[in-house]
Amino acid sequence: MADGELSKNDPAVARRGLVLLFQKGVVEAEALLQQHRGKNAQVDCSLGYIMVLRSLMTWEEDAVSAASDYLKDVEKRCSASGKEMPHIKNPKARQHFLLLQVVEADCMLLRALLYFTKMAIPAYVRGGMLLRSASKQYTRVYAEIESMDREASVQSNGSDDKAVPASDTARAACSFGFGAFNLIMSLLPEKVLSVMKLLGFHGDRKVGLETLQFASRSNDMRSPMALLAILWYHAIGRAVLGIGISGGYEDAIACSQAVLKESEVEFATAPLFNYFRGRTAYLQCDPSAAMEAFTLAADSCGGQREVQHICFYEMGFINVLNFNFEKAAPLFARLSRETRWSSGYYAYLSAMCLASGGQIAEAKELLARLPSLVLRKNSNYEKFVLRKTSRLKKMQLTEDIAQVLLFEVVFMWSYLDFSTQAQRDAVRQLMEEKQPGVSDDVTLLTTNWLVQGALYFLLDQSDEAEVVCYHGTHESVKVPVLMLSTDAVSTSAVILA
After folding, report:
1. Which of 79, 171, 304, 345 is the most exposed place for a label (fewest CB within 10 A)?
2. Which string of b and e fits 164-193 if b means at least 16 CB within 10 Å?
3. Residue 441 DSSP symbol
4. How far apart are CA 13 and CA 31, in angstroms?
5. What's the pLDDT tens digit per position in 156-201?
6. Rounded Cα gap, residues 188 and 138, in angstroms
7. Is-above-0.90 flag for pTM?
């Protein structure tokens, strides 16, 4: 579509902004949308989606706050306009105000997502209440759409005004938010979900995915976001949350590949979609293909700094699994310099990679500066690295210690699950070799046993896994016996202090 045509078609501008985001990056997308900012709610909403997506990729507090404030302002303006709805009889005008109400609900939904990034019970509750408000809004809009469709179906005079196809516009606009709401609700922690159920609403995962599928195939501006939401669920969400993977990742892989194929028309070379190709290769336990996809995505990012950073993170861990510590260290160091999310966490990974590769002096120097890089001491990640750094001050850092601590993080984030059998066996042998070097420290020794036990299990040697973990408790180590299972290995939540 030519620029002249775009300027006369605000919904097309809104959609084009999101397409540009994935194809060329934030700079081009924002340049287009900023020209129309404040003139059309759809365009303002599209800009809000871009701000939220950037926040979710970086988790930087400044980006989260800016996105939340912006969405609150758009929501307020839409709410004021939407109050005129009951007095409007013209179908086209009614549809316009329905779209305003959808944007208002979208803003509440996106603000709820931003609350959830804080990973604290009060934030979950506030986010849950916003989800509840968004749900009610979507339900009202759907009811109005059905009413408009019924009115249109009984018209017999052929008037265009009275036969507006609401399902082609307002329904498509509402589908993304309604589907995302149901999917998000179905993924909330059980404690939060129980509170939400007491308030009278819950999420249906199947309905959410089906509605998102409808939205992804529409011409609405949210269709790229719907495609991305489905892709995230299958390529990342299911593995991280352990949803429907007890028998393996085959279904998640097939669904991810189907979405990627469907997206090729518009996003064949889009860096973010290449990133998801890498994540899908992870599910296939093919780190080489994953590295190829992440490298391609990172090299083609241009101004998409956020996408480049998440690719560097994945590339760093693949290098660790291949024992290429000297290649992993600069990737994590760059993340420490360029991101504001958790500079200390990335610095810790870089230091462990340096020490694992024999650069002990450089690692010690970086660890000495690490406390000054910790900006949010209430962050679980930074609490973790501060505890580790504090312990390391009391011991002589060696390659053995660094490698055990590094593979502790690899285990925590389930990267062992996505490695090849050869990589698992190599890491297991490495942990066995390093065991004497950490035998003087109970916590390090226990960590070593834990990683070994997980690897034995992944290598289909369950008996050995239980023996290794039992040995760790038999020597009066103060940790509970870990009965390894698929869920235990897949759940990346074990952090040994």
Report:
1. 79
2. bebeebbbbbbbbbbbbbbbbbbbbeeebb
3. -
4. 11
5. 555 555 444 555 778 888 999 889 888 988 887 777 777 777 766 7
6. 19
7. no
